[in-house]
Amino acid sequence: MDDRLLIQRIKDGDISAVSQMVNNHRNLIWHIIISMTGRNSDNEDLFQEVFLRVFKGIRKFREEAKLSTWIGSIAHHVCVDYLRKKKLNSIYTDIENDFKAVQNIKSEFATNEHEDLNKLLLSAIEKLPPAFRTVITLFHLDDHSYRDISIITGMPEGTVKSYISRGRDSLRQILTQAVPDIAEIMNQF
What we know:
The protein is built from 10 helices and no strands. The N and C termini lie far apart (about 35 Å). Helix content is about 70%, strand content about 0%. The model is unreliable at about 90-105 and about 105-110 (pLDDT under 50). By secondary structure, the protein is mainly α. Helix 7 (about 130-140) crosses helix 9 (about 155-180).
């Protein structure tokens, strides 16, 4: 079902349409929440808050952007509010302290290279500052365009491009520190 019909059914009070919207956008919301806040006990509450705001605002949705972009923007703002409350909204956190956690993955790397490489990469992404984590996740894992990420995060498109570039540089540093032999592979990234 296309977004316009889904939105209209929600506005008409169709509960099954609400359930379908949640199912359609569940992964996007979880990616944004986890990329911005990490894995913590408040994530379920944040997920529910996102959809509460979506349901409250669905009548105001203007269809100028895709529904997923609008919902992603709400998720981003919910996380920013959460991080402000927790005083964790620092873009330039010190990732040096997190190298030890990434190095623990190094010993697991030998068993199944592809699976372990994915684990290593996801773990390294979790070590990035929240803004970098968010744009890297939205761009590389969710395949959003620079423009969509700009709309979701409220950042200018140039800032999105800069954060993706700087996030990649930080990932190279984290991964090279954890697994020095990976430097050749990372030069292709």
